[in-house]
Write a structure and sequence with these properties.
- The protein has 251 residues and is of the alpha+beta class.
- It is 36% helix and 21% strand.
- The protein has a five-stranded mixed sheet with strand order 1-4-5-2-3. Strands 6-7-9-8 form a four-stranded mixed sheet, covered by helices on one side.
Length: 251
């Protein structure tokens, strides 16, 4: 049996640890360069060297507004240690601002969150009838519907047909049309009665509040009353001399 040649080269001394891996190159942020040079595919805006236009229009309070070559606009942003952000790419030329990109994104998210909170949430209240609802139950539910419409909610009224009561669907339609007519002052019909399965539905949305008539200002009302008072006083004063002259003549 042949023997394999033994390795006679230098060996690592016993007990020594392997060489640690070489550290990764620092990122532009770690080197102190401008932020945002490494564009993420999820970024909503194009910034810095990723802008492809030859010229851009700079806007904002911190720069002299106007059209600049892209290289010059980048130099201005680099000198200010900020980012060149393309906010209107479809304009000709594209509109850019010089800002801190991370701070700009934070402000945009904050503004969107505030707009969502201010957006009116549509609330739909449901009112259920039977095909043969009596007047007492009808008036009770009508009162609730008026309250819902006054508070700005939509009203979804429906007649539920159980079993063979579907034969009275015409009666249910008449009931819903009467309901809509009684709510004419508080809401408008958004959807006429429609039969969906075992339910006939009508949708009523609240009316927009009517504009209030302008009331006369307090100053104007006071001025009118003061003028009326002065007029009455002057009329009294006019009568006094006549009475005085009559008495003098008598003397």
């Amino acid at each position: 049996m042949e023997k394999k040649p033994q390795f006679t080269g230098p060996r690592r001394p016993a007990g020594t640890a392997p060489r640690p891996p070489r550290p990764a190159a620092p990122s532009p942020q770690q080197r102190g360069g401008r932020k945002g040079n490494d564009r993420n595919s999820k970024d909503p805006y194009v910034i810095n060297e990723h802008i492809r236009a030859k010229e851009v229009r700079l806007v904002g309070d911190n720069v002299e507004q106007g059209i600049y070559p892209l290289d010059k606009a980048l130099r201005i942003a680099e000198k200010m240690e900020l980012d060149l952000i393309e906010i209107s790419p479809n304009a000709e030329p594209p509109v850019c601002r010089i800002l801190d990109y991370q701070k700009f994104l934070y402000q945009q998210k904050k503004r969107q969150k505030e707009q969502k909170q201010k957006a009116a949430k549509v609330v739909v209240k449901e009112i259920r009838f039977g095909p043969q609802t009596d007047d007492h139950d009808y008036n009770f539910k009508l009162k609730h519907a008026i309250g819902f419409l006054k508070e700005g909610s939509k009203v979804k009224a429906y007649v539920f047909f159980r079993g063979r009561s579907i034969l009275f669907k015409e009666q249910g339609e008449v009931l819903l049309l009467r309901f809509a007519n009684d709510l004419e002052e508080y809401g408008k019909v958004e959807m006429m009665p429609v039969l969906e399965g075992k339910r006939m539905i009508i949708m009523i949305s609240p009316l927009k509040p009517a504009a209030k008539k302008d009331k006369p200002a307090k100053g104007e009302a006071k001025g009118e009353s003061a003028d009326n008072g002065k007029a009455s006083e002057s009329s009294k004063n006019d009568t006094k001399p006549d009475g005085a002259s009559a008495s003098e003549g008598a003397e």
